[in-house]
Amino acid sequence: MLSFCLCIAMTDSNKMIINVALFGTTQSGKSSAGNILLGSSDFHSSLAPCSVTQDCSLGRSCHLHGFMRQGGQEIALQVRVLDTPGYPHSKLSKKHVKQEVQEALQQHFGQEGLHLALLVQRADVPLCGQEAPSPVQMIQELLGHAWKKYTAILFTHAEKIEEAGFSEAEYLQEASDTLLTLLNSIQHRYIFQYKQGNSLNEQRIKVLEKVMEFIRENCYQVLTFK
Question: Which has the least CB within 10 A, 26, 74, 155, 168?
Fold first, then answer.
């Protein structure tokens, strides 16, 4: 059973925990994106001709100090990230992947709730087709009718669009109808993640700033799994 509620996970008055789940196709950069969010290398990430992630895995960041303030007080932020197998998967069936992710969501976010689902999409791979992409269908089935409120797109390999001479605005103007329809559904919540010219910490801060912007827009509400 899915439900959503107002919940700010505070271990004490000056600490906050946010919960994020990653979805996407094989080799979209989910695990690498998760490592950037965590500021670590918890998730195995490598170039391979097949799916690398076989199981769900939860990573916890160290507390990030000096990142945000609330009520005039500095808040130490901890990020918890659920990495999931890519879908379509080179070895696992949709039924297996869905059950694996569903159980992980219930285990890790069942009570505290999920703040944001990030659909990880390579910026240099067009999103085409008449039907919703497989990872989007998976998100819809797992998160239910509220999925649009709790989903954002994370474009990885965004430096590739710069190399091609596109700005972010131009890239989106030229995007496929499939991608534009998806962006409209989720109120144009998206993040571009760049690698070239930015340190890992700079990448992390920029992505986290956007993630927190989306969470604040939702008034810190979470989706719970019971």
Answer: 74
User: Residue 67, SS3?
Assistant: strand
DSSP 9: B
The residue type found at 60 is R
| Positive or negative torsion for Cα 74, 75, 76, 82 | negative
Render the burial of 43-53: b for 16+ CB within 10 Å, e for the rest: bebeeeeebbb
Q: What is this structure's pTM? A: 0.90
DSSP 8-class letter at 90: S
Read off the pLDDT of residues 150-197 as tens digits, 9 standing for 90 and up. Answer: 999 999 999 999 999 999 999 999 999 999 999 999 999 999 999 866
The mean-pLDDT minimum among 85-94, 95-104, 140-149 falls in 85-94
Both tokens of 96, joined, read 């297996």
- The C-alpha atoms of residue 186 and residue 96 are separated, in whole angstroms, by 27
Return the axis-axis angle of helices 134-143 and 94-109, rounded to nearest 10°. Answer: 40
Cα-to-chain-centroid distance, residue 68: 20
Look at residue 4 and give its three-state secondary structure. Answer: strand
